Amino acid sequence: MAAVEVVVTGIGLLSALGSLESSWQHLTHGKSGIQQHQLFPEFPSRPLALIGQTVTSLKTLTQQVVADALQDADLPLPLPDCGVVIGSSRSCQASWEQLAKRLGRRQDGDTQRLTGETKGYGEFEELSPFLGVPLSTSSSPSPILNLDNWLDTLPHSAAITAARQVGSLGPVLAPMAACATGIWAIAQGMELIQTGQCQRVIAGAVEAPITPLTLTGFDKMGALAQTGAYPFDQRREGLVLGEGAAVLVLESADLVIHRGARVYGKLLGFGLTSDAYHVSAPNPDRRSAIAAVQQCLERSHLSSSDIDYIHAHGTATQLNDYNEAELIQRVFTRQVPVSSTKGATGHTLGASGALGVAFCLKALEHQLLPPCVGLTEPDFELDFVNTPRPSQIRQVLCLSFGFGGQNAVLALAQAST
């Protein structure tokens, strides 16, 4: 039995560069959406990639990219048979940090701190050392009980938001795999169609990660850049956090033929592996990451020589870029054009792979390779795309590598291939 062909008929994208079309135009003109910002008084000014001038709401971001994807695919609502796979690495962390602050504030001048009997609020007692919020023994539980919308801040909220928006009665999934989330979500959407559970799926990832806790965590690791993002460059100094989201409308080829829709490209296959090595550092032997690439190629019925372009993870950190460059050199026997778009969009964490897939689809559409913005002095002997490069592009790979050794690879092709 022949495998069901899965194609992309719509894209919704928002980044520091703008919407899908403006992001593509800015990217191919070598522009970056990274700017210096000081959003929180307790933190110094840092390079960040914001969609606006202030931090973006995850719910608003989700609703906008889903609406844009549906409009791009020319699909009316409701879509009760549509599956939904929307992932996020940080999800509603910003809301929980705000909640922790509210719970810690004194309600009556300087006299009242976080309240609630210890009995019945054990989870807050356990969290209090982490949040830096002491618990009192006051009998008034009102600050804890007055949380009317707390269910909207659970980790799967973006997927539920999208499902409500489209009126979906189908499968709703909310993957979370660090920076590999976006590709994992698209792979899951592909599987829903290939296994016959759906004929149409909205799949991708959203991220509004710029919060005090996220900044503190990456800063403590020494992973944050001070001036900008320079993927694969000799002067690379770390990642730049960015807001962003990308969702795709995936459909079976048969359904697309029936409704006569425009097609950006098709999904060929994916590879998903785990290092089982370290909480943040990639395994230096790269065996698991290489296995993800090989899985993807095998499932896509491709060899390494069939790949015309690699959209690299390219975080501009020392370890990631070194390990990724070594991986590419080991797997690909010929020079393959490579670029990372994080020098333009910042690192959107869980959404980064979904943005990468969207840019790969635009590259297939325009037969134009996007440049590696921020790269001026390559630290590795790869065929980096420094300026937009017209090229015959048939099959491409998009790579993502997340903390905890999450490795995700997706192969795409022209619709006619």
From TrEMBL:
Family: Belongs to the thiolase-like superfamily. Beta-ketoacyl-ACP synthases family.
Keywords (A to Z) from UniProt: Transferase
UniProt organism field: Allocoleopsis franciscana PCC 7113
Any one GO MF annotation of this record: 3-oxoacyl-[acyl-carrier-protein] synthase activity
Entry-linked CDD domains: KAS_I_II
NCBIfam families: PRK05952.1 (NF004618)
Gene Ontology BP annotations: fatty acid biosynthetic process
UniProt key word Transferase: yes
Residue ranges of domain Ketosynthase family 3 (KS3) in the record: 74-414
Protein name per its UniProtKB record: 3-oxoacyl-(Acyl-carrier-protein) synthase
Pfam families assigned to the protein according to its UniProt record, in alphabetical order: ketoacyl-synt, Ketoacyl-synt_C
InterPro entries in UniProt: Beta-ketoacyl_synthase, Ketoacyl_synth_AS, Ketoacyl_synth_C, Ketoacyl_synth_N, PKS_Beta-ketoAc_synthase_dom, Thiolase-like
Coiled-coil zones: none
